[in-house]
């Protein structure tokens, strides 16, 4: 983009007018950018939670098409944890896992524990972990981050838990 310079050949009146237009454009641009960043910051600071919510009413994208009874805690921009769980069929869970490139393995022998949304929303009267004896699980960890996914075949319930710290 070519830069326009206010040169000395302009009359003083035109020079002042041109400088005023430039200053007005800068102010409008600053105001717009400030509003956008402020809104993103304020809305991004709030985590969202819900219980027994229909699939189409949750702020989570890509759930299986038959997902029902969704309970969740979705972290804010700087929050450390996202956790959700929902009812689904085994077939749809396996499709969902494959679509997300989670190489799930069969849970057998030793039970698998996965964190639940309940700890994030202060529901201390309910279990903080789901214990799965028959189902599937997936884990990915690196440094202080992790993704955990599980499916309980007895309850037909899927669990997702991730953390960034």
Describe this structure in words.
The chain has 165 residues and is α+β, with helices and mostly antiparallel strands. It folds into two domains: 7-44; 48-163, no CATH class. 26% of the residues lie in helices and 33% in strands. The strands form two sheets. A seven-stranded antiparallel β-sheet has the order 1-2-3-9-8-7-4, covered by helices on one side. A hairpin with a 4-residue loop joins strand 8 (145-152) and strand 9 (157-163). It is elongated. The two termini are 43 Å apart. The relative contact order is 0.13. The model has no long low-confidence stretch (mean pLDDT 82).
DSSP helix fraction: 25-40%
Rg on CA atoms, Å: 25 Å
The order of strands across the largest sheet is 1-2-3-9-8-7-4
Sketch the topology as an H/E string, one letter per element: HEEEHEEEEEE
């Amino acid at each position: 983009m070519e830069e326009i310079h206010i040169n000395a050949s302009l009359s003083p009146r035109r020079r002042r007018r041109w400088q005023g237009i430039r200053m007005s454009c800068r102010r409008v641009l600053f105001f717009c950018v400030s509003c956008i960043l402020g809104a993103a910051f304020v809305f991004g600071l709030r985590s969202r939670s819900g219980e027994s919510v229909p699939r189409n009413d949750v702020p989570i994208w890509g759930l299986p098409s038959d997902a029902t009874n969704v309970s969740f805690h979705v972290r804010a921009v700087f929050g450390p944890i996202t956790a959700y769980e929902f009812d689904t069929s085994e077939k749809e869970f396996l499709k969902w896992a494959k679509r997300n490139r989670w190489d799930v393995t069969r849970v057998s022998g030793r039970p698998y524990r996965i964190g639940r949304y309940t700890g994030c929303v202060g529901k201390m009267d309910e279990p903080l972990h789901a214990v799965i004896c028959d189902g599937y699980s997936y884990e990915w960890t690196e440094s202080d981050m992790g993704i955990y996914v599980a499916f309980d075949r007895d309850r037909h319930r899927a669990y997702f838990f991730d953390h960034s710290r």
